[in-house]
């Protein structure tokens, strides 16, 4: 792609966790973040200072010198914010894992998705080079522009359509949000018995490492996959007074047993 067609100047819309990390990642790779648009002045100006960008709270004052406008706002705000920008044919993307690309179609004739698959916190540094970035666009030219930009900041760039991205986002809830809540349950139960959660950390790290391999279930351990009903009954007895925790234990144990049975039949 000729240099004059590559994305060089970007406007970031939003100043939350994802907007902050994405703006910084692009800035550090030499992409000019020329403007931050955000309704809350304090957070918008703070991000703008970090990336040496202009700031405005007026979405009608978007800088049309930009090659790309990145909407990093909540899913529920994407449609309204996009249509307040009056971009016509400027390339516009959102960063959501669960919203169709077409939600932008009334805001511009050139649209896409730039979805980093990661959880973001302003106070926690993220190595963006290891963060998968999923790309979708409405034309081949827009697709190539976004792919080139994504490859500047990430080693893991994937073309994924809106339907696939929704599935990916849903599975991320299982792999990330739900597994994190399992740690919360473990910590809560340990506290009730004055046992430090830190004792589980080596096990957690080793278990997480299994995700580096294919066929994760082949490395599944525990009483359910072994069919050790005696241990599971003891665990249920200990959990009897914890209500929903026992329900979760039963549901997951039954799912593991069912999955193993199905695998054994193949």
Word description of this protein:
With 266 residues, the chain is an alpha/beta fold. It has 2 domains: 3-160, NAD(P)-binding Rossmann-like Domain (Rossmann fold, 3-Layer(aba) Sandwich); 166-265, Orthogonal Bundle (N-(1-d-carboxylethyl)-l-norvaline Dehydrogenase, domain 2), CATH 1.10.1040.20. 45% of the residues lie in helices and 16% in strands. The protein has 9 helices and 8 strands. An 8-stranded mixed sheet has the order 3-2-1-4-5-6-7-8. Strand 7 (133-137), helix 4 and strand 8 form a beta-alpha-beta unit. The longest helix has 31 residues, at 162-192. It is elongated. The N and C termini lie far apart (48 Å). The relative contact order is 0.08. The model has no long low-confidence stretch (mean pLDDT 93).
Radius of gyration (Å): 23 Å
CATH architecture of the largest domain: 3-Layer(aba) Sandwich
Task: Tell me the span between the first and last alpha carbons.
Answer: 48 Å
CATH topology of the largest domain: Rossmann fold
Number of helices: 9
Model regions low in confidence, pLDDT < 50 over at least 5 residues = none
Strand portion, in percent? 15-25%
Largest sheet strand order: 3-2-1-4-5-6-7-8
CATH-defined superfamily of the largest domain: NAD(P)-binding Rossmann-like Domain
Top-tier CATH class of the largest domain: Alpha Beta
How many DSSP E strands? 8
Number of domains: 2
Shape annotation: elongated
The run of helices and strands is EHEHEEHEEEHEHHHHH
Structural class: alpha/beta
Largest sheet: 8 strands, mixed
The percent of residues in helical segments reads 40-55%
């Amino acid at each position: 792609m000729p240099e004059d067609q590559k994305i060089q100047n970007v406007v970031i819309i939003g100043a939350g966790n994802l907007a902050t990390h994405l703006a910084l990642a692009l800035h550090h790779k030499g992409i000019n973040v020329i403007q931050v648009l955000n309704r809350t002045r304090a957070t918008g100006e703070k991000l703008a200072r970090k990336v040496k960008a202009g700031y405005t709270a007026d979405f009608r004052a978007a800088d049309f010198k930009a090659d790309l406008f990145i909407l990093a706002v909540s899913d529920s705000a994407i449609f309204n914010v996009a249509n307040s920008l009056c971009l016509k044919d400027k390339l516009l993307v959102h960063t959501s894992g669960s919203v169709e690309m077409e939600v932008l179609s009334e805001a511009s004739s050139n649209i896409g998705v730039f979805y980093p698959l990661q959880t973001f916190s302003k106070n926690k540094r993220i190595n963006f080079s290891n963060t998968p970035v999923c790309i979708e666009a409405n034309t081949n030219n827009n697709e190539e522009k976004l792919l080139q930009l994504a490859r500047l900041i990430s080693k893991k760039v994937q073309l994924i359509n809106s339907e696939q991205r929704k599935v990916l986002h849903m599975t991320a809830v299982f792999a990330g949000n739900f597994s994190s809540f399992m740690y919360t349950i473990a910590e809560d139960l340990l506290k009730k018995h004055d046992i430090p959660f830190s004792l589980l950390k080596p096990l957690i790290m080793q278990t997480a490492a299994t995700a580096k391999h294919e066929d994760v279930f082949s490395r599944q351990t525990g009483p359910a996959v072994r069919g050790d009903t005696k241990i599971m009954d003891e665990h249920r007895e200990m959990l009897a007074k914890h209500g929903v925790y026992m329900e979760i234990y039963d549901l997951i144990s039954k799912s593991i047993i069912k999955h193993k049975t199905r695998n054994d039949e193949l």
